[in-house]
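anyone seen this seq b4? input:
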Amino acid sequence: MSYPHMLEPLDLGFTTLKNRVLMGSMHTGLEEEKGGFDKLAAFFAERARGGVGLIVTGGISPNFRGRLAPHSSQLSFPWQVSRHRKITDAVHHEGGKICMQLLHAGRYGYHPFSVSASKIKAPINPFKPSKLSVRQIKGTVKDYASSAKLAQKAGYDGVEVMGSEGYLLNQFLCNRTNKRTDEYGGEIEARAKFPLEVVRAIREVVGPEFIIIFRLSMLDLVEGGNDWQEVVQLAKWLEQAGVTIINTGIGWHEARIPTIATSVPRAAFAFITERMRKEVSVPLVATNRINTPEVAEGILASGQADMVSMARPLLADAEFVNKAARGEGEDINICIGCNQGCLDHTFSLKRATCLVNPFACYETELKLEPTASGKRVAVVGAGPAGMSSACYAAERGFSVTLFEQSDTLGGQFNLASKIPGKEEFKASLDYFRQRLNRLGVEVKLGCCADADTLKAFDHVLLATGVTPRVPKLDGVDHKKVVTYQQVLGGEVEVGQRVALMGAGGIGFDMGEFLSEAHESATLHPKVWLKQWGVDPEYTQGGGLTERDSTAFESARQITLLQRKTTKPGKGLGKTTGWIHRTVLKDRGVTMMSGVEYLKVDDQGLHIHHDGQDKVLEVDHVVLCTGQESNRGLVPELEAAQIPYILVGGAELAAELDAKRAIRQAAEVVASLN
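predicted toks r here
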């Protein structure tokens, strides 16, 4: 398939972008690491080499109070220019263009020096901000302009002013957080005064031939957010103030509506950019859950936007644009929207990376060096760890054979793809199938490798995965008791009353799978918007409306139990766990902590809870009690004195952790000689 609209140049008047792909801003954590700017240079250079039209950096504060955290990056002094020059030189050397994002955290600043429009604490931050005085506002405007000028001196092609996601400028723009009674509060004209002063001040110091992007919150998705007329007025004022491009911002960080998780339909919010395109003439950028060239092309071809923003998809595959241009879209390593390696890391103050691409943000540290040894590598098991190991080994130049005892590739990815909202895992499976074929890996399905088979290989990697852990419990062999693998594999037909033993990631996945009463809304954007209370007609502030009650229907009566006394789901992903907890709560799933399991019999599951013995009269008890490493081949290999390396779940049977498995595969293969 060709992608003429995505690959079409965009003339900005004083400069031309080579295509319509903008690499959206991502904070990687390298900004604060020792030697991090050298690593950032390599990271951005690889994306520029991969064909991206315009790159935007992670957020850099214009002053100290605007930092995201005490040691976060800011650009305020001439001596800081040289390290940014490393980034811009590297990107320009690869023929790319790059803008620096100017981000003032406002009340999202995780430190006691945070400031905001008003003295109102954010629900996701323990620190209460101080109210900016008029004098401080004027000083902050100057700080923005100064940082933009320094960015220009550092070689950036422009700046993006962050005015969405609930950061400082967004806090001034909305009644939710702006309770001021002076010249910067009240009606929209006053609330917009500060952001517009920032844009005008930047344009004045950088001149006409410098890109200014404004990230405008087009859907606040919070109570007290702006209405559509106010958002349109803001866009028009920004155009008059001299912005080059308006980028779409969706939702505040404190919004209780998912915006970029894997359960969000692809391009679910492109409709709002399309609506704004009728109001202004500057180029507009569509954002959120655009992860394939087909989706990007569809948005641009239909006139919904002038550009598309992809952040995490370019973590997943730096060659995204080049592969699309070569007609190799099926070779793109698709972002599955899991948030595990990127946002979960960022909000835990760790370096960002990517579940499906462990080399992301480790370009200078994790490398696959070519080998001409001609050695043979056997990989046993074709789950995430096995498929990754086989691909990485073939990329290095080894002769690779992949053994899988079942008749399909994928392992745990096959199971994950069946969970409502996790359909993106199918795209990863398609990628691996294509990659294995392209690399010439010999794949043997329905083949149980043994010592006789493996003795002919120079390296043996055991990626045999995990098996469900069966707890010691009276009646665990009762016909009512089944494992999560049996359920997802379609081996049993689960009844209407179900007890789920285990409230970790598997338990919550099973809760969503068994409670889903309709086809997954992830496949139907309009249905999904109704379920989460997003109003495409924008009849109320923030774009909110009442949630569709049909979303709360459950196909079964489900009880989710755990031995731990902590809140069920506490260990789920930092940025996505609340979504899973909300879904099960809405569907009426009963959650119980501090449970002692006694036995299973014809009556059901016997437990001790809150000082009482109870019986849950259920049709089935589904074991979601963790996994054990599948090492059945190990004794045979050791008896035959065949060396092996355990990879993924075979090495460590923790929660289903494809991120760890794929990264370990890369590290193991990189170390082979």
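The chain has three domains: 10-346, 376-467+628-671, 470-517+553-625. Residues 353 and 360 are 5 Å apart (CA to CA). kinda curious what u guys think
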